[in-house]
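Known limitations

Structure tokens in this collection are predictions and should be treated as such. Users comparing against experimental data should check residue numbering before alignment. To illustrate the layout, the record for ABC-2 type transport system permease protein is reproduced below. The input appears on top and the generated tokens appear beneath it.
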Amino acid sequence: MTGLGTALRAETLAWRRSAVQRIATPLLVLLVPVAAVGLVALARSGAVVGAGAAKLAPYATGDAATTQLVAAGQVLSVAALLATGFAAAAAFAQPLADGRAGAYFGLATPRSTVALARCLVLLGWAAACAAGAVLLAVAASAVPSAGLGAEAWAAGGRALVAGLLAAGLALPFGAVATATRSPLATVGALIGVVAVTQMVVLVGGGAWFPYAVPSLWTGMGGPAAASAVGPVGLLLAAAAVPVGLAVVAWQWRRLTDV
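Generated tokens:
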């Protein structure tokens, strides 16, 4: 535990100083509430017609605060996956790609412990960003509405859980980053999974495909698709965290400096 605590402190400091963190944090925290409010406002403005209006139709009716928080969950379910996936590419692949791998062999702390600490730091950062984004979305929805109803609070809670699930689903890309030692290859794999997710949803398997579950659960595919996501689908999505932790720790235990 002492070694893990030391690794957590070191990895936290390194991540705080990371350029990726400094760019991704404000983008993730601010993008979600801004996009949610903007989508609802645009849908209700009447300024969009044709195909665009049809796509925005779900945001054009109902309680504005609830709709904004539903939209926040939908945006966060995608943004958290992408942001945490990019973070994993930077945190795991870049040190191996630029030749710093040899330094890990001189540490008293086992490499698997370092990898575990790095994963936990990324998850903690992503969870904090998701919470901050949802809090801002709640505030942006509550002020003009003079408070939130039960449905709005439920939508906000679902948005937070969806963001956490999406962040956890990015953790296996730390394993991809370690295996390829390439940030670019890791990002390519992330984009490939997003594309595959779209195809799985099109053929009707999204409720069982972990990478589709958070966005479908928030209603991105419509009410019917959201209701099809059950406890099993949510558990499959959540399983990405322990699986990712175990695989990355195993990889780093067997890591070589070549």
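For this record: Residues 208 and 232 are 8 Å apart (CA to CA). The mean pLDDT is 90. Please report discrepancies through the issue tracker.
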